Recover the amino acids of this structure.
């Protein structure tokens, strides 16, 4: 005899059968892990991956160069905080063409692709304390560095900037969706449960906000709160709650006359308890689906704000800001500088939309 299964188990099984839904969800989990451990994986683990090398700016993917690393201060041991937030610059990296060790100094030629512009410099050993021999210096200070995605216009490692920049896009999605769900549930529940003038007031507010273009409203809130990291999160979240509120209101109107709600009223439960403990758990399926779509929308809005200069401010890396810095390179023969972050935005947005579609199919009780 077939055992009874809960609705959540049935929905999970239906979701697991959707290949693209599972694949997209796996991609989202992978991106979240990459964002969390960005500084562990990034070749440039300095704060905001902001180590600049102007002499090797705008280099193609796979570019390799010898690098001389000169300590700025005494090297500090890495703490757990450094693995998640990077560390301040402890070394100065200098791209070089060639180097030699003399009896008392290091002589090197700075990197240049133009003959005749190779600057030769010399650093006495006494300016580099902590080493007992030239061989030890060569082992610790000279390395060959490969830029797997090339360098940006400031000579920063593009791969490191992409990894660290993923934090902005993903975190704004989570924070904006959280704010939109909380605010949307509150207003949608008020309008749907109480009806009458309360519902009319809520719908008037929803329609007013809905009539203003999202990007313009976000820009207005951002200008009111000021430019910055957290201001963008709040601004995007405060513009996306209207969709959640409309869905919640409609769902509550359809279920508030059902028997379990009537029974809760007969038992003398408070309106808050009825809404929070009995109604909302039964209407969360469409809210989850719309939250996945809002997550994708939040990433796109943040990218647009960063492109306009209103998002995360330099030197904090963001995918939209990277497109802004390099979009003119599309016609200058180096389109990858703008295409790499553009493709990243497209893929993460597509993943959330496909996950949302898979959740919609899995939670549809009519199928």
């Amino acid at each position: 005899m077939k055992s009874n299964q809960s609705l959540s188990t049935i929905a999970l099984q239906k979701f697991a059968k959707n290949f693209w839904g599972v694949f997209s969800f796996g991609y989202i989990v992978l991106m979240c892990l990459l964002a969390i451990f960005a500084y562990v994986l990034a070749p440039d683990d300095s704060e905001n991956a902001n180590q600049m090398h102007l002499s090797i700016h705008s280099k193609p993917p796979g570019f390799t160069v010898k690098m001389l690393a000169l300590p700025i201060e005494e090297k500090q041991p890495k703490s757990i905080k450094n693995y998640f937030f990077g560390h301040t610059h402890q070394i100065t990296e200098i791209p070089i063409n060639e180097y030699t060790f003399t009896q008392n100094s290091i002589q090197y030629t700075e990197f240049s692709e133009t003959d005749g512009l190779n600057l030769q410099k010399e650093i006495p050993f006494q300016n580099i304390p902590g080493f007992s021999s030239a061989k030890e210096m060569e082992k610790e200070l000279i390395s060959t560095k490969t830029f797997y995605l090339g360098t940006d216009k400031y000579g920063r490692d593009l791969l490191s900037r992409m990894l660290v920049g993923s934090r902005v896009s993903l975190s704004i999605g989570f924070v904006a969706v959280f704010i939109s769900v909380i605010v949307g549930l509150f207003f949608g529940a008020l309008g749907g449960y109480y009806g009458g003038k309360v519902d009319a007031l809520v719908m008037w507010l929803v329609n007013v906000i809905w009539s203003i273009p999202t990007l313009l409203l976000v820009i207005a809130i951002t200008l009111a709160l000021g430019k910055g990291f957290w201001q963008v999160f709040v601004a995007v979240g405060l513009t996306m709650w209207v969709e959640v509120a409309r869905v919640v209101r409609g769902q509550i109107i359809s279920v508030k006359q059902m028997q379990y709600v009537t029974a809760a009223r007969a038992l003398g439960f408070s309106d808050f308890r009825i809404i929070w403990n009995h109604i909302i758990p039964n209407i969360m399926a469409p809210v989850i689906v719309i939250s996945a779509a809002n997550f994708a929308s939040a990433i796109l809005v943040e990218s647009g704000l960063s492109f306009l200069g209103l998002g995360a401010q330099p030197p904090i890396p963001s995918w939209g800001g990277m497109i802004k810095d390099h979009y003119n390179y599309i016609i200058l023969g180096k389109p990858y500088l703008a295409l790499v972050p553009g493709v990243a935005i497209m893929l993460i947005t597509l993943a959330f939309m496909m996950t949302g579609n898979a959740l919609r199919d899995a939670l549809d009780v009519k199928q």
About this structure: The longest strand covers residues 91-101. The chain has a mean pLDDT of 85.
